[in-house]
Amino acid sequence: MGFDLMTSFAASLLEHYRRVWSAGLEKVPFEEGPIGDLPADFAVMACAPRESRAMWTYATLCMSQPTDAEPIELHLFSRSRADQLAELLVAMAHYHRTGSPLGLNHSVNFGRPWLPNSNCDHGLISLPYLDGPKLEWAEIESRPVRFLWVIPITTEEVAFKRDKGVQALEERFEEAHVAYTDPFRPSVV
User: Fold this and answer.
1) pLDDT tens column, 89-135
2) Is residue 54 part of a domain?
3) Contact predicate 120/185, CB 8 Å
4) Cα–Cα nearest to 121, from 75, 154, 89
5) Is there a domain that residue 61 lies in?
6) Residue 35: C-alpha distances to residues 83, 88, 98, 128, 146 (Å)
């Protein structure tokens, strides 16, 4: 996997991903930006498409730590391999660890398009609807860890969420049959 030394916490998180996704994961090489401020065992992992899921999955590993009050890990999806998504997960992990803790229904500003030329420049931290409760919660070293999905959204959708609420935005997603992995999808508002 590319780790010189993996903590038991990291190994348990990785095993949870492998068990739920029935697939192997590989470490995405990324050493830029504020990664030095993150825990030594932090990494971004990639899971290739497979028979049960025709998209790439990128996930944090050790964004949370065993001593955190509310440990969380984040993941997002992409139609194709896009290792530049590691930068977004590193930035979110950095903000979570050094700024304000992130959680369910929070919005994050990516500071750039999710993928090149995408209208989606923010993320909505959501329940992992595609994987459900089997991914959402895991008991890791006697601590509940929550695994949440980052859905790329537009600036207009962030404003709508602030004005009308998360449930109203999610209803719009359902009505529009949003293709969550389409970087060029139109805004639902």
Assistant:
1) 999 999 999 999 999 999 999 999 999 999 999 999 999 999 999 99
2) yes
3) yes
4) 154
5) yes
6) 15, 11, 11, 25, 22
Please, is 162 exposed, middle or buried when counting C-beta atoms within 10 Å of its C-beta (0-12, 13-18, 19+)?
A: exposed
Structural domain count of the chain: 1
Has residue 169 been placed in a domain? no
User: How many residues comprise the chain?
Assistant: 189
DSSP tag of 42? -
Segments forming the whole domain that contains residue 72 = 8-113+125-152
DSSP secondary structure of 58-81? EEEESSS-TT-SS-EEEEEEESS-
3-state secondary structure of 108: strand
pTM (predicted TM-score): 0.95
Report residue 51 as tokens.
């028979």
